Amino acid sequence: HAAALQALLAVAPQAAMTARIFGRLPAHLAAERGHAEALRALLAVAPHTAMTADSHGRLPAHLAAAGGHAAAVEALLAEAPDAALAVTEDGHTPLQLALALHDPEQPCQLDAARLLLPYGPAAAVLAAISAAGAEALPLFSDFGIARLPLTEAEWALVPAPCPGLGRALPAALAYSPAQARQLVQRLTAEDVSQLRTAALALHRAQKMLAGLSHSVVLPCVAHPGSCHD
Fold first, then answer.
1. What is the pLDDT of residues 23-64, one digit of tens each?
2. To the nearest 10°, the Cα dihedral for 168, 172, 174, 178?
3. What dihedral angle (degrees, nearest 10) is formed by the CA atoms of 70, 35, 108, 128?
4. Is the backbone peptide bond immediately before 149 cis, with ω within 30 degrees of 0?
5. Which end of the chain is less congested by CB atoms within 10 angstroms, N or C?
6. C-alpha distances in angstroms, 60 versus 23, 71, 206?
7. Cα–Cα distance, 109 to 99 (Å, whole number)
8. What's the pLDDT tens digit per position in 91-104?
9. Rg of the chain, C-alpha, whole Å
10. Is pLDDT of 182 > 60?
11. Cα 222 to Cα 187: distance, rounded to the nearest angstrom
């Protein structure tokens, strides 16, 4: 109840720092339940609570990521980017919790995980994605878009073939041919076939345009006075 919360905080802002069982603050509760609007109200009066751990060493970002609450994760990272790198007493980062590495029987929370990809050492992030299995494969393309350029050692951590990686090809091409080459080497056979078909179609279109240009230019060369453009 964000409106009620704002009214209460206006009278008693210190309530945002009042802990209950397991040392959980209101920010922990809002994050765990994905109430992003309420969380933003709490952070407005007590921004330091974004980096306050409960008795299990969990920040609000850990709870939001584990629950797949992307809007809450976004609000917390906007206030405290360092929360993305914090570890619980069990040694898990918010990304690892979003990827369910603490419990393989839980589903990956891909939307929350995407927000956490820009943070931390690239090798550690890639290792976490790999450990999450097939369900997390789409994140490799998101990682590439967010973290280009990758070193050769980092590219070596991207599986080959990697389904869905083609989505990052425009970003790799925009950065450098070397990055695009590394990416193409990890495309699936189906993606390579589609890419080859697109390249052939583009080549044919270029030849047709060149032919049209030639047919238009020749009369102009023959009769320069007839060309106004």
1. 999 999 999 999 999 999 999 999 999 999 999 999 999 999
2. -160
3. 60
4. yes
5. C
6. 12, 12, 54
7. 6
8. 999 999 999 998 88
9. 25
10. yes
11. 49
Helices 122-131 and 138-147 meet at what angle, rounded to 10? 170
On the question of pLDDT at 228 being above 70, the answer is no
The CA angle 100-102-107, to the nearest 5 degrees, is 20
223: DSSP letter: -
Kindly tell me the sign of the dihedral angle through the C-alpha atoms of 145, 146, 149, 151: negative
* Rounded distance between C-alpha atoms, residue 219 and residue 63, angstroms: 72
The model's confidence at residue 214, banded by pLDDT at 50, 70 and 90, is: low
* Average pLDDT rounded to a whole number, residues 160-179: 95
- Indicate the residue type of 163: P
Please give the Cα distance from 156 to 150 (Å, whole number).
10
Two structure tokens written together for 224: 């320069």
Whole-angstrom Cα distance, residue 99 to residue 129?
Answer: 7
In whole angstroms, give the CA distance from residue 55 to residue 24: 8
Amino acid code (one letter) for 92: H
Tokens 């994905």, located at residue? 34
